[in-house]
């Protein structure tokens, strides 16, 4: 009888451990994919021969380089000219991996579309999955760990919606874009940096 009681206690003890192990490890071999449209995409007029995704990627890439903007390649959003849309890009950069295991790719672009309407947009995005990943705006260009984040200061925009695919994050009015130098994908439980996009500011 005692043996059965001990077996029952052992099973009950294993259940939470197994659940925790699944929560921690299952993201490593499972992708969560999202596909969000660019805000106001339904009202956008896309140049002939281009998809909305191609336009957004080009905007992000152009913002992250010294190459001049090509206004003809910018979408016309209701109430905004192509030049105004180009000027809506405030900063952009490309994701890189934090180390050999934690990898990331794609673009991160900050848009200011109007008063109180600022978004962070990911395009062609993919990052190593993990438990409870968060999106951070960080006040240093290349943080390597938790101590760098604490020293520089950061703002959390929320949980990562998916480790694959296009997605948007609202930026609070309280955030000073002039202070933001990178976007970080961060594993909160283990305090590990998964991927960093160092941002290049765009003068408008």
Report what the structure shows.
The longest helix is centred in the first third of the chain and has 24 residues, at 2-25. The chain contains 4 helices and 9 strands, in the order αααββββαβββββ. The N and C termini lie far apart (78 Å). The chain has 204 residues and is α+β, with helices and mostly antiparallel strands. Residues 17-24 and 66-76 have low confidence and may be disordered. Strands 1, 2, 3, 4, 5, 6, 7, 8 and 9 form a 9-stranded antiparallel beta sheet that branches. A hairpin with a 4-residue loop joins β7 and β8. Helices cover 24% and strands 30% of the residues.
Provide the fold topology.
Layout: H1 2-25, H2 52-63, H3 82-87, E1 89-97, E2 104-114, E3 117-127, E4 133-138, H4 146-152, E5 154-159, E6 167-170, E7 182-187, E8 192-198, E9 200-201
Antiparallel strand pairs: 1-2, 1-8, 1-9, 2-3, 3-6, 4-5, 4-7, 7-8
In a few lines, what is going on in this structure?
The protein is of the alpha+beta class and 204 residues long.
* Number of continuous helical runs: 4
Tell me about the largest β-sheet: 9 strands, antiparallel
Low-confidence stretches: 17-24, 66-76
Separation, N- and C-terminal Cα atoms: 78 Å
Say how many strands there are.
9
β-strand percent reads 25-35%
Supply the helix-strand structural class: alpha+beta
Succession of helices and strands = HHHEEEEHEEEEE
Shape: globular
Cα-based radius of gyration, to the nearest Å: 21 Å
How would you state the average pLDDT, rounded?
A: 79
Report the helical percentage: 10-25%
């Amino acid at each position: 009888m005692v043996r059965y009681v001990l077996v029952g206690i052992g099973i009950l003890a294993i259940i939470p451990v197994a659940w925790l192990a699944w929560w921690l490890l299952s993201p490593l071999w499972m992708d969560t994919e999202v596909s969000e449209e660019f805000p106001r995409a339904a009202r956008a007029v896309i140049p002939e021969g281009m998809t909305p995704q191609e336009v957004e990627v080009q905007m992000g890439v152009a913002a992250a380089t010294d190459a001049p903007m090509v206004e003809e390649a910018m979408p016309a959003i209701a109430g905004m000219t192509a030049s105004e849309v180009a000027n809506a890009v405030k900063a952009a950069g490309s994701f890189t991996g934090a180390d050999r295991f934690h990898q990331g790719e794609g673009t991160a672009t900050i848009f200011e579309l109007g008063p109180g309407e600022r978004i962070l947009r990911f395009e062609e995005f993919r990052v190593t999955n993990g438990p409870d990943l968060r999106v951070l705006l960080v006040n240093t260009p290349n943080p390597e760990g938790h101590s760098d984040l604490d020293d520089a200061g950061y703002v959390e925009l929320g949980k990562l919606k998916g480790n694959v695919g296009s997605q948007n994050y609202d930026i609070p009015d309280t955030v000073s874009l002039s202070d933001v130098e990178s976007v970080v994908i961060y594993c909160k439980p283990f305090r590990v940096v998964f991927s960093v996009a160092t941002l290049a500011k765009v003068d408008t």
